Each structure stands twice: as C-alpha cells, then as structure tokens.
C-alpha cells in the first residue's frame, strides 16, 4: 500500500536526497547524520536545520551533533531563521514541512535533526514525497486514537458498550457504541455517523441525520452485533456556525453544495482517519457499512480498512428535506432509490 513511501524512508536512511514538498514550497531533505554527503561549498541555496525538540532538551550527544552541523554550514548559507523548530508532539492537523522532515528522519531511524535545502534541483532520479503523503502514512500506521473509558449505556434501542476516545489527529473526543463482541470480527456492521446537532438533538427536518442515527441503532441492536461511531464532523466538516450560515443561504435558494461553495468550502470536508483508527483499535478485521454514501467506503479504504459490503439506510423524504436529498444524490453521488 505504501511502497513508494517506504522507498522514500529507505533513501533517507541511506543518506540520499529526497524532495519534500507542499502545495506552495519544496526543499531537498537530508537526515543530518549524512551532512558529509552534501556539497555545501557548491550550493548557493539557503540551508535550514530543523530540530524536533527545543535545544535545551537535547541530550549532550545531540547538542554536540547539532553544533557540528551548524559549524559545517557557512553562516551565509543558513536559512534566515537558522534553526527551524518542529512542533513537539504536533497534532497531525498541525503538520507542516518541518514536522514532516523530522517524521521522515525518525522513520529512517535517525535523530530528530533534519536538513532542508531551498530551491531544489528537480531531477527524475531524486524521489519526491508530499506533505500529504507523510500525513496519510502517519494516520494509517501510527496509533493516534486512545480509548479513555468504557462503560455500559442502556438506551431505548438496547444496551450498548460506549467507549470514549481522544485523538491526536483533530484533538477532539469521539464515542463508539458497540453491540456484542466485535474483536476479530469480519463483515461487522458499522455506521459512521457524523455529528449533527440540529438533526440528532433537535429533530431538524432539513436533513435525514437524526432519523439515520436512530435507524442505525435499531439495526445494530436487531443484528445483535455492530458498531456506531459518532464522529465530530458537524456540517460535513465545516462546523456548526458555518452550517447555520449555510442554512440562511439555502433559504435564499442555494442548495447545500452551492451554500458550501458560497462560504468558501468544498462540498464535503470530512476525513475518515479517526474512524479507521477506532475500527483498528476495536480489532475489527473487515466491515459492512450502513451508508448511502460511497465516499465513506472510499474514506475507510484510503486508510487500510477492508470494506466488504454496504447496507442502505435510506429515510423517507419530507417537504423540507427533499431538495437536500436530491442534491446529495445528484451532486454528491449518494445511493438513494426513493429520490427522483
């Protein structure tokens, strides 16, 4: 799944250059251990030394190592900031190129010291890696969610285990409602439910969210086994305040996708890395999703979750949400049989 990324790590480990890029900038990256391989005298580009922790927290050996590096780099060639400090324990959402550089060095079994050389020469023989690739690799392979507490929750549908999770991706709290023993399970019934205050709590007729939430719990209870993940993705990721702004635009005649665009957002900002991490933490081998949204299937597969099936969870339209449902079908690809 990550053959190219593993090649990048191997190149860094061997002391070969790789090009690390974001949407707006790019650098040649070396692990600091291989500074002897860099022809410093032959480059006119600025060189940035990136460290993954505050200098005063470096060990004596690391401090000496850093001093040798800084001595080797001519003052005129140091980047304007000289030392770039990667954010210690940065959440994935805060990752920028310095954090990505340190991550690549760590994965290559080196200290948290990296060299970034500006204005790289693009060469077909020098492999490139993007900031997004580094982030996605971390989301897939590193444990970034943590089960904080588990207890029983009796509901009107039945009794579930409820597990609260913290995460290092978004810095939010999530819950999983679990029915039965799902550890080691295959084709486990799973519902990814995005938080919707207006629908889930207040019974809004603008959407089908609240009804889908309750139907999901009914179906999982009837099945005797399954999981509902309650994801903190209000308004398809734009947040509660912006969702209510979108409501005002919808009242002016815009559909839900057009309203997002008017506010400067894409159709759907949701990412399912946290969901994939929780599924993995529950030791579920494969899932059958309760969803009408193919993007949720793709969103889990992107992070290595095996999706073996899908069950529809279609709610009858009403006068207030018929246009919303048509938009989901026609513009977002939702699989809705009852909407024409």
From TrEMBL:
Cofactor binding description: Binds 1 zinc ion per subunit.
Keywords, comma-separated and alphabetical: GTP-binding, Hydrolase, Metal-binding, Nucleotide-binding, Riboflavin biosynthesis, Zinc
Domain GTP cyclohydrolase II: 149-311
Cofactor(s) the record lists: Zn(2+)
GO term, biological process aspect, one: riboflavin biosynthetic process
Pathway(s) the chain acts in: Cofactor biosynthesis; riboflavin biosynthesis; 5-amino-6-(D-ribitylamino)uracil from GTP: step 1/4
GO molecular-function term, one example from the UniProt record: zinc ion binding
Positions contributing to Zn(2+) binding: 196, 207, 209
Reactions catalysed, as given in the entry: GTP + 4 H2O = 2,5-diamino-6-hydroxy-4-(5-phosphoribosylamino)-pyrimidine + formate + 2 phosphate + 3 H(+)
Entry's family note: Belongs to the GTP cyclohydrolase II family. In the N-terminal section; belongs to the DHBP synthase family.
NCBIfam families for this protein: PRK00393.1 (NF001591), ribA (TIGR00505)
Protein name (database record): GTP cyclohydrolase-2
Organism this protein belongs to: Culicoidibacter larvae
Gene: ribA
């Amino acid at each position: 799944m990550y053959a190219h990324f593993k090649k990048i790590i191997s190149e860094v480990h061997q002391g070969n250059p790789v090009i690390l890029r974001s949407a707006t900038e790019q650098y040649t990256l070396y692990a600091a251990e291989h500074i002897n391989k860099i022809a410093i005298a032959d480059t006119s580009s600025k060189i940035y030394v990136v460290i993954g922790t505050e200098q005063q927290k470096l060990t004596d050996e690391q401090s000496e190592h850093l001093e040798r590096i800084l001595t080797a780099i001519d003052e005129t060639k140091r980047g304007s900031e000289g030392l770039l400090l990667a954010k210690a324990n940065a959440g994935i959402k805060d990752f920028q190129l310095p954090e990505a550089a340190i991550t690549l060095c760590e994965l290559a079994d080196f200290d948290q010291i990296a060299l970034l050389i500006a204005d790289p020469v693009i060469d077909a023989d020098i492999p490139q890696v993007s900031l997004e690739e580094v982030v996605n690799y971390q989301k897939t392979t590193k444990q970034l969610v943590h089960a904080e507490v588990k207890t029983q929750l009796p509901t009107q549908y039945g009794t579930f285990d409820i597990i609260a999770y913290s995460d290092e991706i978004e810095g939010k709290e999530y819950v999983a409602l679990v029915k039965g023993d799902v550890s080691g399970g295959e084709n486990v019934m799973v519902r990814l439910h995005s938080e919707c205050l207006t629908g889930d709590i207040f019974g809004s007729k603008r959407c089908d969210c609240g009804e889908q939430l309750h139907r999901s719990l009914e179906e999982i209870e009837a099945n005797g086994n399954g999981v509902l993940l309650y994801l903190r993705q209000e308004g398809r990721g734009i947040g509660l305040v912006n969702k209510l702004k979108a409501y005002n635009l919808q009242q002016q005649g815009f559909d839900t996708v057009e309203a997002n665009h008017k506010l400067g957002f894409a159709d759907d900002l949701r990412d399912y890395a946290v969901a994939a991490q929780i599924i993995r933490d529950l030791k579920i081998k494969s899932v059958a999703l309760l969803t009408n949204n193919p993007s949720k299937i793709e969103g889990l597969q992107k992070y290595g979750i095996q999706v073996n099936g899908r069950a529809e969870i279609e709610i009858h339209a009403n006068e207030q949400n018929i246009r919303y449902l048509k938009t989901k079908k026609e513009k977002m690809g939702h699989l809705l049989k009852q909407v024409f």
